[in-house]
Design brief:
It is built from ten helices and ten strands. The chain is an alpha+beta fold. Among the domains are: 80 residues, no CATH class; 74 residues, no CATH class; 53 residues; 34 residues, no CATH class. The strands form three sheets. Strands 1, 2, 3, 4, 5 and 6 form a six-stranded antiparallel sheet that branches. α1 runs antiparallel to α3 and α6 runs antiparallel to α7. The longest helix has 33 residues. The relative contact order is 0.05.
Length: 356
């Protein structure tokens, strides 16, 4: 699978054509069938190539060339239209548009060489050497066979057998391979899990430090993704505005990227417990001031501690009972005054009765 950008000039930013090709299947005799699509701002043309043969128009394509969008109208007739642009967008891995493997490929080869060299040494020198003294025979194969099968070898009176082994200098290779592994993750900006051997005992600070390089790499990728999504967003918004007669803009849309990083759940639980205990102490301190401060101030302070919007809940708060009694007494006095009956003493009695 591949894409080729075709420009009128090498210095042009706009592409005239996009050639998109892929291997469809492999026929008998290992003949490769390649499908080729040539995209322009108006239409798409389909080609096919068998093996290394000639590139020809694809006769299996129903409409060739065809518009970007084909649909059926109410009468069942096929119609189509073009976007007016080539619907391909490129997401660059970096400024130089090279693979992330390139800067660490030599390190990986060196690491592989160290490990393979150590393996070859172990294979070559895993068999001990037998030094036979006073061997007077002519057939070494017979001697070797006796050592393998019978585990016994006969020698002369003054002879003997010594077993010689070779110490493989693996420490240097192991140290070099370990250094290469660190550099691969360092320059590849990846996550090295060897530094997080015991996750249960690893703090969240250590985990964030291990993710730091990968997080930097994600920051760069996020910027490039936003540029790509903005290009796609313009196309979508233009279609929405044309269909619904609206005036939306690309700036009306917010792009939110959420990343998930593993954490130490035990430490998180302990931190939440400490926060809850601290919050409880603050609330108890505020409630201890009820005899000094008014109810509104107390409720506002508690809302600040619990992160609650006081303006949203103040209408639903229960009113002070003393204020309710005063309000009821005032309403009763207003009723008696409006009726205009009774003396001042009866009004007073009625007022006292209302208060009681």
């Amino acid at each position: 699978m591949g894409v080729v950008e075709v420009r009128a000039k090498d210095t042009d930013d706009k592409c005239e054509y996009f050639i998109y090709w892929y291997t469809d299947r492999i026929e008998k005799g290992k003949k490769q069938i390649k499908r080729i699509q040539v995209w322009s701002a108006k239409e798409t043309t389909y080609y096919v190539q068998e093996g290394d043969g000639k590139i020809e128009l694809d006769t299996e394509a129903e409409i060739n060339p065809r518009p970007h969008v084909v649909f059926k109208d109410k009468k069942g007739e096929k119609k189509g239209y073009s976007f007016g642009f080539i619907p391909f967008w490129r997401l660059d891995n970096n400024r130089k548009r090279i693979s992330g493997l390139k800067p660490i490929k030599p390190l990986i080869d060196d690491y592989d060489l160290m490990q393979c060299g150590l393996t070859n040494n172990l294979v070559d020198f895993d068999t001990p050497l037998y030094m036979v003294k006073g061997f007077d025979g002519d057939n070494l194969d017979e001697l070797q066979q006796n050592l393998k099968v019978k585990k016994v070898v006969g020698v002369e009176t003054d002879g003997g057998v010594e077993i010689k082994t070779i110490d493989i200098p693996y420490q240097a290779r192991q140290a070099k391979a370990s250094e290469d592994e660190k550099n691969i993750y360092r320059f590849g900006m990846g996550l090295n899990m060897t530094g997080l051997k015991d996750t249960a005992a690893t703090t969240n600070i250590a985990i964030k430090a291990a993710y730091s390089l990968l997080d930097m790499k994600a920051n760069k990728l996020e910027k490039r993704l936003k540029r790509l999504l903005k290009e796609l967003l313009r196309v979508v918004i233009d279609e929405i505005n044309e269909t619904n007669k609206t005036g939306y803009k690309a700036s009306d849309v917010n792009m939110v990227f959420k990343r998930s990083v593993m954490t130490n759940e035990t430490e998180n639980t302990q931190n939440e417990k400490v926060k809850a205990e601290t919050q409880q102490v603050q609330i108890n301190t505020i409630l201890a001031l009820t005899a000094t401060l008014d109810d509104a101030t107390i409720v506002k302070a508690i809302c600040d501690v619990m992160d609650i919007d006081y303006e949203e809940i103040k209408e639903r708060l229960p009113k002070d009972e003393s204020k309710q009694v005063e309000q009821a007494q005032e309403e009763l006095n207003n009723v008696i005054t409006d009726e205009g009956g009774g003396t001042d003493e009866s009004k007073a009695e009625g007022s006292a009765a209302g208060s009681s």
